[in-house]
Amino acid sequence: MPQRYPVIIITGTPGTGKSTHAQLLQDASPVPLNHINVGQLVKDKGFHHGFDQEWESYTVDEDKLLDELEPLASAGGIILDWHTCEMFPERWADLVVVLRCNHTMLWERLEKRNYPLKKIQENNEAEIMEVVLQEARDSYPQQIIVDLKSESSQDLENNVANIVEWINQWLKDNKDDTA
């Protein structure tokens, strides 16, 4: 059975605005989309091997997580919101949105979240080195990847509007598949 609505992955370094984008996109979308905050799902469902004290994060059980997400992705109509994308199978993604942010601004955002210095440094370095963007480029066809600046409320509004336009085009292009 073909999926009725697209699967959109919103990814980026922590602090780039993934969850805010996903929530606003869910609200603005012309079709129902279920926003899945993957990090929260990992915590809520216990899809991890424990908490890494040094990095202050969970060690994800990718098999359990992917088993949970597979039927949702197959059905379509979801926004996957996470700081990485490479573990999601290529067949799931219709659009991969990589959010980017100036590293100085990112540093300030992570400080406001009370991230430990080591995590701020690691994430800032990842943003400077374009780690998440490169993961996306290594994992998905180039034509489904968009790299969007996420530094201001105007960027946020423009990004969501552009993704809504993309959804409308996707619906036209896939209308025979979704009927």
Strand content: 15-25%
Biggest β-sheet description: 5 strands, parallel
Spatial gap, N to C terminus? 11 Å
Q: What would the average pLDDT be, to the nearest integer? A: 94
Number of strands: 7
Essential attributes:
single chain; globular; 179 residues; 5-stranded parallel beta sheet; 8 helices; two-stranded antiparallel sheet; alpha/beta; 7 strands
Report what the structure shows.
Helix content is 50%, strand content 22%. The protein is built from eight helices and seven strands. The strands form two sheets. It has a five-stranded parallel β-sheet with strand order 2-5-1-6-7, with helices on both faces. Strands 3-4 form a two-stranded antiparallel sheet. Strand 3 (48-52) and strand 4 (57-60) form a beta hairpin. The longest helix has 21 residues, at 153-173. The mean pLDDT is 94.
Task: Present the secondary structure layout.
Blueprint: E1 5-12, H1 18-28, E2 34-37, H2 38-45, E3 48-52, E4 57-60, H3 62-75, E5 76-82, E6 95-100, H4 103-112, H5 117-128, H6 131-139, E7 145-149, H7 153-173, H8 175-178
Parallel strand pairs: 1-5, 1-6, 2-5, 6-7
Antiparallel strand pairs: 3-4
Helix pairs in contact: 1-7, 4-5
